[in-house]
Specification:
Two copies of one chain form a homodimer. The first copy, chain A, is α/β, with parallel strands linked by helices and 330 residues long. Chain A has three domains: 51 residues, Single alpha-helices involved in coiled-coils or other helix-helix interfaces; 212 residues, Rossmann fold, CATH 3.40.50.300; 50 residues, no CATH class. The first copy, chain A, has a seven-stranded parallel beta sheet with strand order 3-2-4-1-5-6-7, with helices on both faces. In chain A, strand 6, helix 8 and strand 7 form a beta-alpha-beta unit. In chain A, helix 1 packs across helix 2 and helix 2 runs antiparallel to helix 6. The longest helix of chain A has 28 residues. Chain A is globular. At the A-B interface, helix 3, helix 6, helix 8, helix 10 and helix 11 of A face helix 3, helix 6, helix 8, helix 10 and helix 11 of B. Chains A, B: This is Methylmalonyl Co-A mutase-associated GTPase MeaB.
């Protein structure tokens, strides 16, 4: 299929008017790696930027088996019931999806995906986490311009995707399950300290008591180990995504975080710092990609990397040789 | 004073022969920002690289008031008593020192600094953490080539210096004090999860019981919250740097970590990954510095940074404009 010629201004108008087709096309455009698409995507984003920033940006990660998809569906349905408009995005650098489809994750959240007021988009594909994260960040902006006021960004927990997601949201939720002290098997070092709230899911049936106990234990451990940061004490909540109990507490916590961080200026500071870091990351990644794409570098890199890994060559010396080669001084 | 012409090969021989003066000159050379010194430093490191890697690299951070300097002195004296040769380096990006001096921190560790088998070097000065960390990493290599077999790298806890230190050592120690649950006031988010061992200092006199209690609480919180990584369960120890009790347990823990991580291959993997990341960080920092030094960039940057901070311009668009300018396409 040959797509219609891209008119970023018309596409932006469609996005802002709430046209689903325009929204899907806009995100597909942003996910494209074609140079002409990239230029159109830039123009589209320029049109949309003044209309972004209005959503609560919520990141969600969890241990395997925590019931993250069910939790996100329950949470999204609760947002809808409160009159909100949720969009669900994902960062999964391992995803083999080849772009363009809006199927995929939808099957995991059937009820939410059937509601025309909600929007669910699986992870863009891409070989690098940086590329996937960039497109998800931009998709988040497009969703905001389209009027979605709660953006949920889900991480699959591969590589450094949790950090990438925490770096693009206002609030980061960690979903755990009640268990015997081994709840964090499968979660990587450093993730707990990214969390702005911890949620113990599956607090239903036989597990209800265990969930309450786990929540108490986590709360006390977090109180002891988590450094007080921006005046926000990380709460530990229980819920059951299955029976949809406790979901309102999570939602109220999101609102309370938004209010307190908004009033203190912490939210604006966090977003400004994220945008600044994002810009410099993009600069850095673009420059590094140009360096890697350089034929002279590609020929020399394996030898130098091996020498550095073996401890035969100082990393600084290898770096300077490569940069000199890249800048045509080698 | 005009220094003698630099002969990297002769200097490397002096370092390896254990000459204090050569060691101090070598590190001063590495810390220099002069271009000709940098070239000589590269040549020096090339000479020394085959003789590096033999030390236990131990990073130490702590909450303010934890008695870190006293702890490092007691630890260093214990290493000496065991027949080891300790070197103490520091990463302090806020240090206003203007290079070359080997005074400074020595006054904090009088007994250790008087011992000719030990070596203490304050933090290099530098405006960026990256620059300070690079020089400390290279100083660590020089110390290893000079025969020091325990390198202690201290962080002052400014900016991201803990992460920088954790990224250059084999084992990272977090020094805390017994207290009323607010022990982590002053320590930043994410630091606890960097620790390979937690040490509760000041376990003496009136505080002995509180220290034991704090250690138990930390151990249980860490067990609950810390993700199992490389098969190493983070131990929590008590000691008194003042009365020098419990220091041998810390030393035995360092040896045990070294043995277990060495046997499993985790140590070699950690060092190879660190060297690889260090090389790419240096490449990235060098390229970003060239970009910042570009006159066209310097003229345009403030406007773009402000627009990004205000949410008027997408970070990606700003990045692409700056890179295009830098590469002469703007």
């Amino acid at each position: 299929m040959t797509p219609a010629p891209l008119d970023p201004v018309a596409l932006a108008q469609g996005v802002r008017a709430g046209q689903r087709r325009a929204l899907a096309r806009a995100i597909t455009l942003i996910e494209s790696t074609r140079a002409d698409h990239r230029a159109a995507a830039e123009a589209l984003l320029s049109e949309l930027m003044p209309h972004t920033g209005g959503a609560a940006r919520v990141g969600i990660t969890g241990v395997p088996g925590a019931g993250k998809s069910t939790f996100i569906e329950s949470f999204g349905l609760h947002v809808l019931a409160q009159g909100g408009r949720p969009a669900v995005l994902a960062v999964d650098p391992s995803s083999p999806r080849t772009g363009g489809s809006i199927l995929g994750d939808k099957t995991r959240m059937e009820e939410l995906s059937r509601d025309p007021r909600a929007f669910i988009r699986p992870s863009p594909s891409g070989c690098t986490l940086g590329g996937v994260a960039r497109r998800t960040r931009e998709a988040m902006l497009v969703c905001e311009a389209a009027g979605f006021d709660v953006i949920v960004v889900e991480t699959v927990g591969v590589g450094q995707s949790e950090t990438a997601v925490a770096d693009m949201v206002d609030m980061f939720l960690l979903v755990l399950v009640p268990g015997g002290g081994d709840e964090l098997q499968g979660i990587k070092k450093g993730i707990v300290e990214l969390a702005d709230a911890v949620i113990v899911n599956k607090a239903d049936g036989d597990l209800a008591a265990a969930a309450a106990r786990a929540a108490r234990d986590y709360a006390s451990a977090l109180h002891l180990l988590a450094a007080p940061g921006d005046g926000w004490q990380v709460p530990v909540l229980t819920c059951s995504a299955l029976t949809r109990t406790g979901i309102d507490s999570v939602w109220q916590t999101v609102l309370r975080h938004r209010d307190s961080q908004g009033a203190s200026g912490a939210l604006a500071a966090r977003r400004a710092a994220q945008a600044h870091a994002w810009m410099w990351n993009e600069i850095s990644e673009t420059l590094l990609q140009s360096l890697r794409d350089d034929g002279r570098i590609a020929a020399r890199l394996p030898t130098l990397e091996q020498a550095v890994a073996d401890g035969r060559l100082a990393p600084g010396a290898a770096a300077r040789e490569l940069v000199a080669l890249f800048r045509g001084e080698g």
